Amino acid sequence: MRATFTRLASGLQSHLSRPRKGTVTTLHAARHRTRLLDVQRRIRIYLRALWNDDFTIRQIDFFTADEGRKPFIDKRRIYLPSALYADNTEHLTGLEIYRAAAAHASAHLMYSKNHFLPKSLNHCQIAMISAIEDARVEALAIRKFPGLKQLWATQHTATPAHDKTASDYLDRLARALLDETYQDDDPWVSQGRVLFNSADNLEDSHISRTIGLKLADAFQARRIKFNIDTDMQSAPYRDNNRFLWNRPGEALEIINPYLRSKNVLRTDKPIAEPKKRRVPAREVERDKTSHDTYLYPEWNYRSQSADQSWVTLREMDAASGDLQVVESIVAQNKHLVSRMKNLLHAIRDGAVHRIRKLEEGDDIDINAAIRAQIDLRLGRQPDTRIMMRTVRKTRDISVLVLLDLSRSMNNPVQGQAHTALELTQQVSVLFADAIAAVGDPFAIHGFCSESRHNVGYFRLKDFDQPYDDVPKARLAGMTGQLGTRMGAAIRHATYHLNNQKASKKLLLILSDGEPTDVDVPDKHYLRDDAKKSVEEAGHNGIHTYCISLDPSADKYVSRIFGARNYMVVDHVRSLPEKMLLIYAGLTR
Amino acid sequence: MRDTISQYRIEQKPYYRAVAKEVAVYEAAYAERMPMMLKGPTGCGKTRFIEYMAWKLQKPLITVACNEDMTSSDLVGRFLLDANGTRWQDGPLTIAARHGAICYLDEIVEARQDTTVAIHPLTDNRRVLPLEKTNELVQAHPDFQLVISYNPGYQSVMKDLKQSTKQRFGALNFNYPQHDIEVEIVSHETGISAEIAHKLVAIAEMARHLKGHGLDEGISTRMLIYAGTLIAKQVDPLTACDVALVTPITDDPDMCDALHAAVTSHFG
């Protein structure tokens, strides 16, 4: 404990005493930084493509000391550093190092089936056996995927000029075993090469032990000091090989005590129990009127699995407001309503449409045919488009508008006098008016949340409910409070849409910001869960579209909803009209 | 009238590499004129198979690519104008039924359900095609057979064949061929060496691992042939794979990147 404290203290001291100029360098480096969070998905897809197997990738905790920043494997999970910096000299990007590290670690998981026993071995022997095992699994992987050699070889930088420490020699051996074009005349390195190349069966992990021991003997004869803590291979992608020496089921022996601290445990269970807090009177009142409780899973991107029955969602009665509000919204937007009429007319359910002037259709258009005949008899060129086709237009669509009713909706919209909630209210009223005129079944629901135990869901208007004073009063009474746990709300909206019989189902989400909640400090967690819930809705045949009022939403909205399924509204005056246009486009 | 049908005859032997007993089974089914359904992912050789069988059985083949705007007139026929008035023009299905061809409806699920019902009377023991507009009942020629293709995978749940349609057909399941066979096909079709074809097939197999994990459909044999053709035209293999395999199959940047990396693990 004391040692850890001293190390942290000295680290802090050195950080504080760093000259100001260093900050500029740090900023510069940040531009070339690759974060694991940003590339984790591509790495996972890549490994699945390689091995047809799913691997769990986690990030090494921030508090780990520098020497612990090397990738490692524990219980079939691959741990990689949380961020990597591009290597300017070798033109290596952080992504390439991540990819190489993931490929190397997965090769271990595929080919290092037998674990070695460290009994009666010294540190040098352990390091040598590990180095040969690294080369062995890489050779096997390269046999299957020849391009991996290039990926790994670019990350080895050892040359014969490196001849000081045991670490230098280990690097040279590693490079020599991987890359046959690498020139190294050192007798020990050459011996390693010869022994490795003459091995009969690379599939057999015992050769790593045999060759490793021989090389360790030869190396010890050179009397170069060997220190297990510092003399490791320096290629950034290689893991610390501790995995090879721990039998499955045994706890992983890790140098740094922090790796076992609560910080890592927290990544396993990302959501801490919410603290007890005073329940506002208003909420108690709501609880009384809650109808049904639903349990929903939530996607945990760290473990890449769904936590079953994780979120409790309650359907609650929405408060009613003053009907006047709704009426005044309609009255204020009369010009808009009249402009929307044309559009509505176009998308309204028309029984049979005749498409005329077709070269190829189902029937002859008599008028056009007569005209063509007259032209023929007059010796003129007739119009050949004399067919028509009858199309029966049926609108078979259900739409659910899901409103974000979180606290942030009370903030004014950027550059506008009214709040996001007022805008949402206005949009929902006009939209409801318009859709009611078209005649499509529609529902307007809202949600807010306070931790995973308490997601509130309000059915302002239901599918089978006529759009009369009751839903109008609820629209008038909407308020914004608490957080935005979007995934659970989308799952519940999916549930409601699934009960609809329409062949096309549309879920329109109106939100002002990204998913957040009091019990989740990690932004990525709820985003990934929301993305997952959108995918699930897609599997149920539901098209999801998001209208975001957050001007900086581009970054995350496209990740959640897909590149074509969102719109960030920057000038809000035309929002109701835009929303109708989207609706018309999506339901055509 | 002989000319109408003769243009549908297949003169050249199409290349088809049998993967299982499908040729023998199809021949038996044809002997009974049993309507057949070819199921399988896109680009795995369904259309090529039916061309080969038509050539082998020496029967004309009429192929109709179905789309969602297709109506029953597009299959059955319609009235057209000529100098003397109106004239009935047989649709592809009627031509096949009158003259004894194999009628192949490609991607039948794309067509609207009311269109697919038009084939029902031809696919049971009646073997007739009622032409409502001309008030005619076309008795199918003894050589006539109906074949449809159907890709159960990528369409959403909403696009599916009705049970009443499905149950009129015998079905052959197609999938991507086994590794060695696919290598043989790719190198035969493109002229590239077996070694490069082997790499292409290995890349396709990697992408097929991702089906359902972000990809709706794996890389098909057809795509491999495109890639191989580009390579045979001296295009650098990495570029050829990007153009023919990676970019067409997905719009997801993460997926593109991972697939590109998968390509470099063979053509590094």
Description:
The complex is a heterodimer of chains A (588) and B (268). Chain A has 20 helices and 16 strands. Chain A is an alpha/beta fold. Chain A has 4 domains: 27 residues; 234 residues, no CATH class; 220 residues, Rossmann fold, CATH 3.40.50.410; 41 residues, no CATH class. In chain A, the strands form 4 sheets. Chain A has an 8-stranded mixed sheet, sandwiched between helices. In chain A, strand 3 and strand 4 form a beta hairpin. In chain A, helix 5 packs parallel to helix 7. Chain A starts with a helix and ends with a helix. Chain B is an alpha/beta fold and 268 residues long. Chain B folds into 2 domains: 172 residues, 3-Layer(aba) Sandwich (Rossmann fold); 86 residues. Chain B is 42% helix and 16% strand. Chain B has 12 helices and 9 strands. In chain B, the strands form 3 sheets. In chain B, strands 2-5-8-1-9 form a 5-stranded parallel sheet, sandwiched between helices. In chain B, strands 3-4 form a two-stranded antiparallel ribbon. In chain B, strands 6-7 form a two-stranded antiparallel ribbon. In chain B, helix 8 crosses helix 10 and helix 11 packs antiparallel against helix 12. The longest helix of chain B is centred in the C-terminal third of the chain and has 16 residues. Chain B is elongated, with a radius of gyration of 21 Å. The mean pLDDT of chain B is 89. At the A-B interface, helix 3, helix 4, helix 6, strand 9 and helix 14 of A face strand 3, helix 9 and helix 12 of B.
State the gist of this model.
The complex is a heterodimer of chains A (588) and B (268). Chain A is α/β, with parallel strands linked by helices and 588 residues long.
